[in-house]
């Protein structure tokens, strides 16, 4: 039996046993579609792949759930991959939703959710026909999961060719 370093022991003690990922609800998907697809530039990337929310919802209902291991996460474009709480706080201060919808308290609530195994909505990742992947929603949850030693589960939505 090999001796563990203090750093390894602390890391093991701080690992969180999180098992409560949940699929986004229809209402969650509608909000993501509105904000990320209609308002933000995602529509330019996908063309007319999802001309209506209903077409997006059908794709989401067919989506696979995968574990976003570090090697998979490195392939997902538009990810922030922050390394600490202070980095995530710095990032969210640049969001248009700060401080009304995203702030220090909402970030702490996500950390608490992982610590308490509270239901956590899966991030949404789009996969294009050429294999490229892009985060659509849940970038912050993915970062905080990784800060907490949790491998995120994501909803992987295939984008049809148009």
Task: Please describe what this structure looks like.
Strands 2-7-5-6-3 form a five-stranded mixed sheet. It has a two-stranded parallel ribbon with strand order 1-4. It is an alpha/beta fold and 162 residues long. The relative contact order is 0.21. Helices cover 44% and strands 15% of the residues. It has one domain (21-36, 47-55, 62-158). A hairpin with a 5-residue loop joins strand 5 (124-127) and strand 6. Helix 7 crosses helix 8. The longest helix has 14 residues, at 26-39. It starts with 5 loop residues before the first helix and ends with a strand. It is globular, with a radius of gyration of 17 Å. The protein has helices at residues 6-14, 26-39, 42-46, 53-62, 70-73, 85-92, 104-115, 139-147; strands spanning 21-22, 64-67, 76-77, 120-121, 124-127, 133-137, 153-158. It is built from eight helices and seven strands; from the N terminus they run αβαααβαβααβββαβ.
Structure summary:
This protein is α/β, with parallel strands linked by helices and 162 residues long.
């Amino acid at each position: 039996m090999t001796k563990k370093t203090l750093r390894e022991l602390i890391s093991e003690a701080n690992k969180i046993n999180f098992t409560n990922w949940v699929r986004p609800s229809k209402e969650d998907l509608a909000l993501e579609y509105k904000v990320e697809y209609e308002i933000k530039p995602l529509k330019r990337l996908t063309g007319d792949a999802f001309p209506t929310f209903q077409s997006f919802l059908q794709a989401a209902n067919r989506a696979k759930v995968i574990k976003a291991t570090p090697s998979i996460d490195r392939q997902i474009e538009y990810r922030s991959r922050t390394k600490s709480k202070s980095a995530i706080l710095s990032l969210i201060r640049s969001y248009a939703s700060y401080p009304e919808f995203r702030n220090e308290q909402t970030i702490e609530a996500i950390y608490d959710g992982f610590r308490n195994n509270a239901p956590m909505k899966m991030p949404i990742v789009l996969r294009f026909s050429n294999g490229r992947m892009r985060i659509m929603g849940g970038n912050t949850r993915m970062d905080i999961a990784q800060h907490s030693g949790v491998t995120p589960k994501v909803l992987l939505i295939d984008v049809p060719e148009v």
